Automatic annotation (TrEMBL):
Transmembrane segments: none annotated. InterPro entries: 6-blade_b-propeller_TolB-like, AB_hydrolase_fold, Peptidase_S9_cat, WD40. Gene3D superfamilies: alpha/beta hydrolase, TolB, C-terminal domain. It comes from Hymenobacter qilianensis. GO terms for molecular function: serine-type endopeptidase activity. This is S9 family peptidase. Coiled coil: none annotated. Keywords: Hydrolase, Protease, Serine protease, Transit peptide. GO terms for biological process: proteolysis. Residues 588-754 form the Peptidase S9 prolyl oligopeptidase catalytic domain.
């Protein structure tokens, strides 16, 4: 087991490092990698069979570790290590390797990773070689961004539909294109652990380089011009090639154009081949998917997607399977077994089929349900890595037709994770094990399917999460692997209760109720903070299902409302606010009515229990929860104050869809207008605190959303405060930012909720 100490709450100085926002990416030009990374600062090894934790030797102090990956035989671990920029030299992302037997790490010299597209290396199956995307040597100076323009910036569309959702950080001009090319251009290297390197092919904007399972070929995806000023790099033209390990071109698989005419439906896809990858259980077989409906789910089509394979020497494509739903992934097993997943957004349908990769036999249905019906979720098929380090189905039984399923186990009594085994021929299921109260225990890995030996993570209301070795054949045999202490000992044991109640129309709802540690019923009703994040559903039966578990340990993340139990508040956390649209109706057709009804039901339940002071309730939310908060203040009198962080308030600024709404503004203008709290700014009389990160990168939640909303509120005499956190993105990270955010929220709640006049005594 590898234990990684994770850096938390970096300083604002860390966040204020240079950041290049370009082509939908955010890069640190000093390192040629992503600008926001959650680094590990130390590594330790521990044998599952017992023994002490072993600190890894050879690491610099401090260390910034990311992109961690075990070798196929588990004898080594590769990782990226980012160095700080100095006056003498820029920073860089180095390639390191850890020898597990000696717990010693060392740098592979002369390799500067280019991580603008994520993890920049892959292991070959020989456990001695890696394929790395690197910064080209002698690439020269950064193009001058201040050069005088040579002409206007022109975009043109001639009579074809090219709708695009709302994106940020896009290319804006030819200068941006040159700068993007400078940082995104990669040289592939074959890197041996002894330090030898060999360039493979020519430099290019290489987004992916994946070795074949047999280690003889590399599947390379290279983005190229013409670029777009409306779309991110993921839609740029892409060339898909196969190279050998000397860097020679073996086969050009596809050259796909700019994907600028994809319909805005959530399960729309580009035309032509897509999702190129290796078949994990074969030596060197590529597969891809091709839409058969023009990529438009609104077209009538008996077949939506077709999966195609092509084995080395890559001359003859073979049709593998036709799907009447959109392809959602494939899990390879062996020559006779694979599982294919498909989905349809309109009714949230998901299906899993069993196929035989050797034949063109029709697929057989294994699972079929609504993606929102968590009670019927059969779990995720367990995969183990093979000798090539590729993850494939763990197949057992005398005929290799038994699979193993790890699931959350949603139920009316809360989540109870489980492990099942399922025979694909007989469809008989046997349950190995299921989490039991008063614990919440999650299966993490299966070490031995025959011995039914598991690694799990177990926690309870009073016990912090820790890892255990569980023998599923012996119910009570449990061996602790870690001993992480309670990270919040000063708080004591937080009182958590999972409330189950009903909306006025009878729809079941849930919320987590937290009360101050020393609270007694005789203390009477408390000022209350309600937090929620609405979710859309296509039927009431799934919308009313119980979420979460009453036995989880309470984690305090930076954005949590639970902090306020320490300040004498009752907290309604993760309050379910379902927005349901059954049949031909869309959920958002009655968004406001259902929103208010859901919030009202939660407050009434807390009032019925005698713990919520209904005349002193505040509401908060982040992102779509901020949108919810503003709407609740505009369309109800339930709250004394609201806190809205990093939200979008004017839906006309996201005209090609938002959240789970796939209709465009022009298809449903009344929905967009009614749902936009910006259009109801004149109705908001309740005090509202707006907080936004000035570098918000989330699609649709441009900081201008809060800026314009605040101006509208101010112009109508509302009590409002607008706080901009420098250098923060959609989620906040810096210690200084979070501490200030907490101070702002606490001051707001104290002034407008806690200190509001208490209700008269009965």
């Amino acid at each position: 087991m590898l234990l990684m100490d994770v850096q938390d709450l970096p300083s604002i100085a860390d966040l204020s490092q240079p950041e290049l926002r370009i082509a939908g990416l955010r890069l640190n030009p000093r390192t040629n990698g992503p600008s926001r990374v959650s680094y590990s600062t130390a590594l330790k090894l521990k044998r599952l069979s017992g023994g002490a934790e072993i600190p890894v030797k050879g690491l610099p102090t401090p260390a910034k570790i990311s992109e961690v990956s075990w070798s196929p035989d588990d004898s080594k671990i590769a990782f990226a290590l980012t160095t700080e920029a100095t006056a003498a030299a820029g920073g860089q992302i180095q390639l390191w390797v850890l020898d597990v037997a000696t717990a010693t790490a060392r740098q592979i010299p002369g390799v500067r990773l280019n991580s603008v597209f994520g993890t920049a290396y892959r292991w070959l199956p020989d456990n001695q070689t890696l394929i790395a995307r690197t910064v080209p040597a002698n690439r020269g100076q950064v193009p001058d961004a201040t050069a005088a323009p040579t002409g206007p910036i022109v975009q043109e569309n001639v009579g074809r539909t090219a709708a695009a959702r709302t994106y940020q950080d896009l290319l804006k001009n030819p200068s941006d294109e040159k700068i993007f090319d400078y940082y995104a251009t990669t040289q592939l290297l074959k890197v041996s652990l002894d330090g030898k390197t060999q360039p493979l092919g020519q430099p290019g904007v290489i987004q992916g380089a994946s070795p074949s399972p047999d280690g003889k070929y590399i599947l390379v995806e290279t983005r190229h011009r013409p670029y777009s000023y409306q779309l991110t790099v993921g839609s740029f033209p892409v060339k898909v090639d196969v190279l050998d390990l000397s860097g020679n071109l073996v086969k050009s698989i596809a050259d796909l154009p700019l994907a600028d005419n994809v319909p805005t439906s959530f399960d729309a896809v580009p035309t032509g081949p897509r999702n190129h990858d290796w078949r994990d259980d074969a030596p060197a077989t590529i597969y891809w998917v091709e839409a058969q409906d023009g990529g438009d789910p609104k077209k009538v089509a008996a077949v939506r997607d077709k999966v195609v394979t092509m084995a080395a020497p890559f001359t003859t494509p073979m049709d593998l399977v036709d799907l009447h739903l959109r392809f959602r992934g494939i899990t390879w097993g062996d020559n006779s077994t694979a599982l294919v997943n498909g989905y349809r957004w309109a009714d949230r349908k998901v299906m899993t089929w069993v196929i035989n990769p050797r034949t063109k036999m029709p697929p057989t249905v294994l699972f079929e349900r609504s993606s929102q019906d968590t009670y019927k979720d059969p779990g995720t098929p367990y995969q183990k890595h093979n000798a090539a380090g590729r993850y494939v189905l763990a197949l057992g039984g005398s005929d290799n037709q038994t699979i193993y399923l790890l699931g959350e186990g949603a139920s009316p009594e809360g989540n109870r994770p489980f492990v099942d085994q399922l025979n694909l021929k007989t469809r008989k299921t046997e349950r190995w094990w299921r989490s039991e109260a008063p614990y919440y225990e999650v299966p993490v890995d299966i070490l031995d399917v025959n011995k039914r030996l598991l690694v799990t993570r177990r926690e309870s209301v009073e016990q912090a999460p820790n890892y255990f070795l569980r023998d599923a054949k012996k119910k009570n045999k449990l061996t602790a692997l870690t001993n992480f202490p309670n990270p919040y000992p000063a708080l004591g044991t937080l009182k958590k209760q999972v409330l189950q109640y009903k909306r006025a129309d009878g729809l079941p709802l849930t919320a987590n109720l937290y009360l101050p540690p020393n609270y007694k019923k005789t203390d009477g009703p408390l000022p209350t903070l309600l937090e929620a994040y609405p979710a859309e559903y296509k039927d009431k039966s799934t919308a009313g299902q119980v979420k979460g578990s009453p036995y989880t340990f309470t984690r305090l993340t930076w954005g949590s409302p639970i902090f306020w139990v320490t300040q004498g508040y009752a907290v309604l956390q993760n309050t379910s606010i379902p927005i349901v649209g059954e049949g031909d109706a869309e959920p958002n057709d009655t968004y406001i009515e259902q929103l208010v009804a859901g919030a009202k039901a939660a407050i009434e339940e807390g009032q019925r229990l005698g713990v919520v002071d209904a005349k002193r309730v505040g509401v908060m939310g982040h992102s779509y929860g901020a949108f919810m908060t503003a709407n609740l203040l505009a369309h109800s009198n339930l709250f004394k104050a609201g806190i809205a962080r990093s939200g979008a308030y004017n839906r006309t600024l996201t005209p090609f869809g938002f959240q789970a709404e796939e209709r465009t503004y022009w298809e449903a203008p009344q929905v967009y207008d009614k749902m936009s709290p910006f259009t109801a700014a004149n109705k908001i009389k309740t005090p509202i605190l707006l907080i936004h990160g000035e570098a918000d990168n989330n699609s649709g939640t441009f900081p201008i959303q809060s800026e314009r909303f605040y101006n509208a509120l101010k112009g109508h005499g509302a009590t409002a405060r607008y706080v901009v956190l420098p250098f923060e993105s959609h989620g906040y990270a810096a210690r200084e930012s979070i501490m200030h955010m907490l101070w702002e929220m606490d001051s707001w709640l104290n002034k407008y909720v806690k200190e509001a006049p208490a209700p008269p005594a009965n």
